[in-house]
Amino acid sequence: MKSRFAALMIGAAILAAGVPVVAHHAFGGEFDPNKPVLLKGKITKIEWVNPHTWIHLEIVKPDAKDGCQFTSGQKCEEWMVEGGTPNTLVRRGITKTSLANGTEIVVDGYQTRDHSLSRANGRNITFPDGRKLFLGSSGTGAPLDGADPTEGGAKPATGRGRGGK
Amino acid sequence: MKRLFTAFALACGVGAMVSAQQTAKIPRLADGHPDLQGTYDLATLTPVERAASSPLVLSDEDAARLEKQTAQRKVVQDRALDADRKAPPVGGDGSVGAAGNVGGYNSFWIDSGSQYTIVDGKKRASLVIDPPDGRVPPITAEARQRATQARNQAATSDTGAQENDPGFERAPGAYDDPERRPLGERCLMGFGSTSGPPALPDYFYNNLHQIVQTPDSVLILTEMVHDARVVRMNAEHLPPTVRKWMGDSVGRWEGDTLVVDTTNFTEKTRFRGSSPDLHVIERFTRTGPNTLLYRFTIDDPKTWAKAWTGEFTWPLTNEHIYEYACHEGNYAMGNILRGARMKEADDAKKKTERKQ
After folding, report:
1. Is the pLDDT of residue A159 over 50?
2. Which chain B residues are closer than 8 Å to A16 by Cβ?
3. Residue spans per domain, chain B
4. What is the mean pLDDT of chain B?
């Protein structure tokens, strides 16, 4: 019973974490399972590059009274969050300017094994209300992949994932 | 030789049948050969192998049900999260595989296909068509031994570094040197045989391939890690002493089918554990204005007791390949190697403390 419960919990964790399957590189070697982080901050820059996108955040330290707004003053620190390949999003009409600098986001993930770096994986990246970035509901007009005609979206996915029709 | 001939005859036979059916509608270049040029999206739900004792063709009902399930899974993955969620658990979130207990990233980055491949108007349950059971033949004892040796090479002092840390790979010395890291992680080649040959879907993302064709050469550009393979038309293979990471590809036309023959591999890519003697025959046949049938036959007696063949349709897309430029943003490599060094130092410190 115990092992069944454990399996269930692992399943739930995988579901919560999004898509932890194959990837370009060993996330487990890069990030420390013992350093979970929850980051709340403003986007200052997006590196729209392969193999993985990096989103830069300005995070105001707890003891700071005022927001720093993209300064590197002592009251703020900059974090970098690793996402996935930008190619998928480019194909849905999303570019590095789709999210304005200053947009507030929330990221949960794990810090790099080198704790001197302020870097983490973007296990989940959302707006403050929990909605995920880059989906149709984010206001970018991005469809999923065009497979569902009811899902709408600004740009039809022609010829893609169509199996060969 | 006989087995290769059998596989070859099978490949030829069906290829000729397809081209005879479709000849009329396919675009052609000035030299009269079919125009294969364009960008194709290889994303598909059809796996390389299918479940034992199941048919090659999926019924329309089964295909529709499975495709709907996939779409529904994606809807669940895309759902909003709790606005007040906390950081994930200390010790890892239980993720397995490449995510290594720290999770991957959101589903919106993923583009793994939404439909099963259609060949001859029918949805397919596997890419493998020969053996007829849709299973890749088991690898030989020699290949198993080779795989074990590859895993155990260069055992070093950091063997203990992986203890009690599922995030780290267990292969000894896996983090000692950038050259021990996988080719994909090093931005040298795609993973999962994306460039091939054989060029397969990676069931994850970045599945575009572009073909550029001249009478003398055919270029196959793979989106993943911008691997480019140049097929020399009507040429002889290079001498066996010249080895190439994607092999040496020469091509010829057999009727309306482009046949690409690739040998001279290295030990670096090891497609499903193959040896450098791997021999891949690919057949590219335009089956309509928007589709190409891709068939591959794999022969390597040092790895499989008999040759095997798979096929799937490459649909044309009007999307563009976004430049991969992989080294530019590959902060991960530095993060991974530095992380391993810090863990070694930490483990050494703990060991010293235990002794005292």
Report:
1. no
2. 81, 93
3. 38-78+96-159+185-324+331-336
4. 87
- Here the tokens at position B332 are 């991960």
How many inter-chain contacts (A to B, CB under 8 Å) are there? 324
How far is Cα B66 from Cα B45, in angstroms, rounded to an integer? 9
The token duo for B322 is 């976004």
pLDDT exceeds cutoff 90 at B223: yes
Contacts of A112 in chain B (CB under 8 A): 335, 338-339
Q: Residue B264's pLDDT band (boundaries 50, 70, 90)?
A: very high
Window 106-165 of B: residues touching A by CB (8 A cutoff) are 106-111, 113-119, 123, 165
The pairs formed by A62-67 with CB atoms below 8 angstroms and a separation of 24 or more are A67/A42
Compute the Cα dihedral for B187, B189, B195, B198 and give only its sign.
negative
The answer to whether the Cβ–Cβ distance between B335 and A130 falls below 8 Å is no
Instruction: Identify all chain B residues contacting A26, using CB atoms and an 8 Å cutoff.
Output: 98, 100, 169, 181-182, 185, 336
CA contacts within 13 A on the Cβ side of B240: 4
Cβ–Cβ under 8 Å, residues A42 and A55: no
- Global pTM value: 0.84
Share of chain B above pLDDT 70, in %: 87
Local confidence band at A74 (pLDDT 50, 70, 90 cut-offs): confident
